[in-house]
């Protein structure tokens, strides 16, 4: 076996010394073994939230090998010059390159669609979200953004309920509305978008409005959470009653039209709301039906009169009934309400994991 020379600085002069062959053998074996573990880790590394990186048997062994090589074989010469400056003579050059490629491979293996979310919420929380089934009723300016956030957070199954199609007047505020989706059912546009973000999500669509006469079509016990983002008071009341009767958590969106201040949204119980006309009506109707509590997202901003409503205030339909005013809307208000809805759902679904994580942080050890 041929000896390998190395250099050291002695008294300002470079002195070449011999590296014993056994040391080179040990290093070579370690590098070869690390390459095997790199390949195994890259092949078997879990790429879904249902499997923790810690479950990979090759992961920690590979990490130990890398740390050992880094500790025993410094990536710099004794003279302080970088390995790449004299790579043709440096016996550690190939090993160094191998380590660099290994670290890049590990990084690539650890990343998946929700890896950044997992860094914040933890593996257990991501597993909980992957098992969750959430129903979103209403896919307009509020509901569309709620669906977007749920899909990007790794929710495993989504039920989408709406009978509307995308129209050109939706383009100013609805995330599902583009010139490409005009004329599509909002449920189909949402499903296409969700699967482009989260391909493994199970998406069920219902092209129908939720009304008392259609309530029997839905099994609320199958849902882990329900989001109410529909417009009609009758439908909202029936949806709330059905969810609570099944013991399924529900959060309801109040009015987001005719408003300009996205910072005015609050999360509260329905009986603690103020300033919102829709919330006032809902309080009265739910109290009459014996509903004790309901989590809602509402705005404390007083509604602004829409220009069209002011101009047409004296217009009337046939039969003496005043025409129903169409609320004004902007892109930056209903979207915030939808994101808050989704955030509350996600936090509620993983609340046990968050509490556990905080409790562990308080332990002295």
Structure description:
The protein has helices spanning 21-44, 57-72, 93-110, 115-121, 123-131, 143-152, 186-197, 233-246, 277-288, 307-311, 334-349, 351-361, and strands at residues 4-10, 13-19, 133-137, 157-161, 202-206, 225-228, 250-253, 265-269, 295-299. It has 365 residues and is α/β, with parallel strands linked by helices. It has 2 domains: 4-112, no CATH class; 118-303 and 327-357, Rossmann fold (3-Layer(aba) Sandwich). Strand 6 (225-228), helix 8 and strand 7 form a beta-alpha-beta unit. The longest helix has 24 residues, at 21-44. The radius of gyration is 30 Å and the shape is globular. It starts with a strand and ends with a helix.
- Total tally of structural domains: 2
SS summary, helix count: 12
Largest sheet: 7 strands, mixed
The portion of residues assigned to helices is 40-55%
Measured between the Cα atoms of the first and last residue, the distance is 51 Å
Shape: globular
Low-confidence stretches: 41-54, 72-87, 310-320, 355-365
Give the strand content. 5-15%
- Please tell me the CATH architecture of the largest domain by its name: 3-Layer(aba) Sandwich
As a whole number of angstroms, the C-alpha radius of gyration is 30 Å
| Multimeric status of the protein | single chain
Helices and strands, in order, run as: EEHHHHHEHEHEEHEEHEHHH
């Amino acid at each position: 076996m041929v000896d390998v020379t190395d250099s050291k600085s002695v008294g300002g002069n470079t002195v070449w010394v011999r590296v014993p062959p056994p040391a080179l053998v040990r290093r070579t074996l370690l590098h070869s073994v690390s390459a095997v573990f790199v390949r195994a880790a890259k092949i078997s590394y879990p790429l879904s939230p249902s499997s923790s990186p810690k479950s990979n048997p090759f992961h920690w062994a590979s990490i130990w090998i890398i740390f050992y090589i880094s500790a025993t074989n410094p990536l710099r010469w004794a003279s302080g010059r970088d390995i790449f400056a004299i790579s043709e003579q440096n016996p550690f050059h190939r090993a160094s390159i191998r380590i660099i490629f290994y670290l890049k491979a590990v990084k690539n293996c650890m990343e998946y669609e929700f890896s950044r979310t997992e860094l914040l919420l933890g593996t257990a929380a991501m597993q909980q979200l992957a098992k969750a089934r959430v129903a979103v009723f209403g896919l307009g300016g509020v509901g569309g953004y709620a669906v977007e956030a749920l899909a990007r957070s790794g929710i495993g199954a989504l039920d989408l309920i709406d009978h509307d199609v995308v129209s050109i007047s939706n383009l100013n505020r609805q995330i599902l509305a583009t010139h490409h989706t005009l004329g599509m059912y909002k449920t189909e546009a949402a499903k296409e978008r969700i699967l482009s973000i989260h391909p493994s999500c199970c998406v069920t669509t219902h092209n129908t409005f939720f009304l008392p006469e259609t309530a029997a079509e839905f099994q609320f016990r199958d849902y882990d959470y329900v989001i109410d983002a529909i417009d009609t008071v009758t439908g909202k009341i029936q949806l709330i009653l059905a969810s609570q009767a099944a013991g399924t958590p529900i959060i309801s969106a109040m009015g987001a039209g005719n408003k300009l201040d996205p910072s005015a949204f609050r999360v509260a119980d329905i009986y603690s709301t103020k300033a919102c006309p829709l919330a006032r009506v809902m309080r009265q109707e739910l109290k009459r039906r014996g509903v004790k509590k309901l989590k809602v997202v509402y705005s404390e901003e007083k509604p602004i009169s829409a220009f069209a409503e002011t101009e047409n205030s004296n217009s009337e339909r046939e039969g003496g009934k005043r025409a129903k005013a169409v609320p004004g809307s902007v892109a930056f208000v209903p979207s915030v309400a939808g994101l808050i809805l989704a955030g509350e759902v996600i936090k509620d679904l993983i609340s046990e994991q968050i509490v556990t994580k905080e409790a562990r942080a308080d332990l002295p050890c």
